[in-house]
Write a structure and sequence with these properties.
OB fold (Dihydrolipoamide Acetyltransferase, E2P), BirA Bifunctional Protein, domain 2, eight-stranded mixed β-sheet, binds 4-amino-1,4-dioxobutan-2-aminium adenosine-5'-monophosphate
Length: 498
């Protein structure tokens, strides 16, 4: 008996097929049962009628997430998800699930995170996982088609590349070693061997920040190109991001819509992207026009909060007048949703005056934090390329800017709609003595980096690259509020389970 996947049902109309999967929900109405069935490729509605008594009674007492093999005829049904429905003639119960912990009622985020292994089965998580898969496939496909060679870089590494403060150390047979913060240093040497290379792997940062943007373990894809200068990297990043977004739009439009994503915002993601230098970005933060815009946004959100509160009390009033259980449940759900929105908005409104003040008083020389990135990236409908940051706040390997030695030839790409940095990269310092001096200033022992310095001794050339954080990209493309839902099993400060 071959199994048909739900996603392919539209090409089996009129045929008898066997599906294998799990029950999301069952509803009975007299002599007919409606089963919401899922198999990982999608969901479909199945019906079983009492005229098939064996199949009909097989569903007796089956809880949510019981597993079955169902055989029936595929019918066109425009009102159902996927446009088809399956009329069941035979049902084989594979396993009965009882008291599945995640029900249709609302659950708090802590509960869902503790049950992440089960939460992955929900429609919403399925959609996010499919989009994540597409982003990764597209990212690899882009480099594969563009003449890059995949180079796997080590995860056990002898030293820091992105600052000692976020290293995870491990005992490597009595020697100190660290989990990779980036594959970059190895990748640079591979670029001298192969010209255009990329690596893709897990990356570790002992980030002591509990924000919606930070994981301690995340996936990064990093290209590195010999003879590339900063301007080449700007073009590469813009081609790369546009391609990824287009691929998701082509293949995962339904998933985006099911997440409630504003698809038109993604359709705008096309080259060219706006570019500003760090200094221009600081001027933008100081500009009175920006402050006026932020104040107006704050006033608009205050009005929206009042409207939300009015809507909540209206619904609470209606609650006193309805008696049917399903109506009470529906109203309660709507009230909870609105309360959640109001709570979030209230928090935003409370914090915004401080953010506006921070923008006004931001000093040239500091790194942009999440708040500045949010403000800057909200001003554009495409990713914003910010270049040439102060060298003090950036990594030792970045090339000094010949036209302004206070800055380096780097780029950060900030995703729009307030998502902030998704790409960080730079042209690399290719002069041995300049690099060694910079390492000395940083208090770095050059000894463990001799292999890295060798490429500046034997045929040094301009080169550079960047890293794209997969999870931040998933968060932006899916329109999520927090990074925790972008990876199957997130590792956050304070969370290692399951
Ligand atoms: O800007 P970062 O630190 O750059 C590097 O690691 C370079 N060595 C890359 C290169 O030039 N080859 O990190 C790059 C990207 C960030 O833009 C962000 O998307 C992601 O990695 N990232 C994180 N994602 C989730 N959680 C964290 N703690 C992250 N830190 C960085």
């Amino acid at each position: 008996m071959t199994t048909t996947r739900i996603s392919s049902l539209p090409s089996h109309i009129g045929q008898t097929v066997t599906l294998r999967g799990w029950i999301r929900a069952i509803r009975s109405s007299g002599k007919i049962r409606f089963i919401e069935f899922r198999d990982g490729s999608g969901d479909c509605q199945c019906t079983v009628e009492a005229i098939h008594p064996e199949a009909f009674s097989a569903f007796e007492g089956l809880g949510q997430e019981s597993s079955l093999a169902l055989t029936g005829e595929v019918r066109e049904e425009p009102r159902s998800v996927g446009g088809v429905e399956v009329s069941i003639q035979a049902a084989e119960v594979l396993h009965i699930s009882e008291d599945y912990p995640i029900s249709r009622k609302e659950h708090g985020i802590d509960f869902l995170m503790q049950h992440r292994h089960l939460w992955l089965r929900s429609n919403r998580q399925n959609a996010i996982l499919r989009i994540r898969h597409r982003i990764i496939t597209a990212a690899r496909g882009f480099f594969d088609q563009d003449g890059f060679t995949l180079i796997d870089t080590p995860i056990f590494q002898p030293g820091a590349a992105e600052g000692a403060g976020t290293l995870f150390d491990v005992d490597y047979f009595g020697e100190p070693a660290y989990l990779a913060q980036t594959g970059q240093l190895y990748l640079e040497t591979a670029a001298m061997a192969m010209g255009k290379v990329y690596c893709f792997g897990p990356t570790f940062r002992a980030e002591k920040s509990k924000t919606r943007r930070h994981l301690t373990e995340f996936w990064m894809i990093e290209p590195e190109v010999a003879f590339a200068e900063l301007e080449d990297l700007e073009v590469l990043s813009e081609r790369f991001l546009s391609y990824i977004v287009q691929e998701v739009l082509t293949h995962n439009r339904d998933d985006l819509e099911s997440l409630g994503r504003d698809v038109s915002a993604l359709e705008a993601i096309q080259a060219p992207f706006p570019r500003v230098t760090y200094s221009e970005a600081v001027d933008l933060l100081h500009h009175p026009d920006l402050h006026a815009k932020l104040e107006a946004e704050l006033a608009a959100e205050q009005t929206r909060l009042q409207e939300l509160q009015k809507e909540i009390s209206n619904k609470e009033g209606q609650l006193a007048q309805v008696s049917k259980a399903w109506k009470v449940e529906k109203l309660n759900r709507e009230i909870r949703d609105l309360q959640e929105q109001a709570k979030e908005l209230d928090l935003w409104i409370q914090n915004q005056p401080a953010h506006i003040e921070d923008a006004k008083t931001f000093e040239w020389g500091s790194d942009f934090g999440g708040d500045e990135e949010t403000i800057l990236s909200k001003q554009f409908d495409r990713p914003l390329i910010v270049t040439e940051y102060p060298r003090e706040v950036k990594a030792f390997y970045m090339k000094r800017n010949p036209s302004d030695p206070r800055t380096v030839r780097n780029l950060d790409v900030l995703a729009p709609e307030g998502y902030g940095e998704i790409i960080g990269g730079s042209q690399r310092e290719d002069e041995l003595d300049v690099l060694m001096k910079r390492m000395e200033e940083e208090g770095m022992d050059p000894e463990p980096y001799q292999w890295y310095l060798d490429m500046r001794r034997y045929g040094s050339v301009p080169h550079g690259g960047f890293g794209l954080g997969i999870e931040r990209t998933v968060s932006w493309i899916c329109g999520l509020k927090h990074i925790r839902e972008t990876i199957p099993f997130p590792r956050l400060m304070g969370r290692m389970m399951p």
